[in-house]
Amino acid sequence: MEPSYFKSPLYRYYTPFTYKYQDDPPLLIRMHTNKLFLVFLSENHPIKNENVLEVKFIHNTDGLSGKRKRNAPLLQPATRLAVVRTENFTYVIRAGVEGKLIELNELLLTNPNLLKEPEGYLAIMMPPLQKISSIVKRLTEDK
């Protein structure tokens, strides 16, 4: 086992959870120690085995301002976040977490196959602080 000081910050500072919505493939949600959530595809998501042609975000983060990200879209876990088109299928990716959408990974627009990489996140979400414990209860801890 490698020492913890060699591990990527993604594994040192983020707690992994799984989000599953109805028949959709699961998402990997990582919670940082500062209570921000990053949305990824899970390791067994079908997109990981396909060539990604396009990622289209449904929401935008233009006009955000200030420490609390005023004007950020408020999303629910089942809210559609993006549409990913591969050679064979089109997938809808959901937010996975309730909160403000504070950042979209714009690199996916020019290089959509980054989505298949371990660091290829879709979005950063900021949940309401008073709801973090209930959000964590709803997510399945991925240990």
TrEMBL record:
GO terms for biological process: regulation of actin filament polymerization; regulation of filopodium assembly. GO terms for molecular function: actin filament binding; actin monomer binding. It comes from the Eukaryota. Coiled coil: none annotated. GO terms for cellular component: filopodium tip; lamellipodium; nucleus. InterPro entries: Abitram, Single_hybrid_motif. This is Protein Abitram. It comes from Blepharisma stoltei.
